[in-house]
Design goal:
about 300 residues, 2 domains, about 25% strand, Purple Acid Phosphatase, chain A, domain 2, 6 helices, alpha/beta
Length: about 300
Amino acid sequence: MGRRRDEGRGAARALATMAGAGAALGAYALYEPYRYRLVTHDLACHPSVPELTVLHVSDTHLDSSNQARIRWLSELPDRLGLTPDLVLATGDLIQDNSGIEPLAELLAPLEARLGRFFVFGSHDYYQASFQSYAKYWTGKRNPRAPHADSDRLRDSLQNKGWVQLHNRSEVIDTPSGRVRLTGVDDPYLGRHKMDHLERDAGDVCAIGLMHSPEIVSEFVLAGFDLILAGHTHAGQVRVPFVGALVTNCSLPLPLAGGPHRIGDSWLHVSPGLGSGKFSPIRFNCRPEATLLRLRPETL
């Protein structure tokens, strides 16, 4: 009888320990979305690519209530400690219309030697509304969500000197040669076009921008040196030794976040700075802005 009581107590202690660990992990998953960071990656590129610094910002999911994110973004220029050559934003910049003015004010001080460019994501067209969590596996968005004031968002950014790259390219003349920037409107919503995905023989560097990384292979085939995307939040929940469980698009799970070499190209999928209004958690996947330092590879 005594043995059974001891076994019962042992089982109860084990269950209590597991429950406590589960509660701690759950609490941390609610805390990690506030652990913003600036991460730097050095990327060895084709020998013709000049040295460039690129600040990649994505998935800020801003609304007027995001005081911690607003504060961190306001400190980002000082955290950088330098003026990058390019500042590039790859969409899902707002959560709802209340984020438009704060976003434009926060991004305005991010200076760049060669320019600041952006593309939109689905949340820049549709305000946050509850959807089935099955969408993270199916990748399907609810088109009945309330529309965002996309025109006001675009105009607010352009009035601060940002340039929209929806289905178009810009070529910048630099002392090292021509740098091509090519963007597409959001592939997740099927708003993209691809007939302009090409580089000229005179380009020393070609950089592509999109929100959802659905068409990364098209940029790779076109010979782009660097391809930037967001949307996945790097999986948002990453299991140790396993990685991301979902990407919310057709991108393979191993490519869900960070820099990856694909052929002669680099793909960088930003973990993003925000999270969805109805999935406000992160685990093993801190929110970040990323400074990418392109360096010519020595042969």
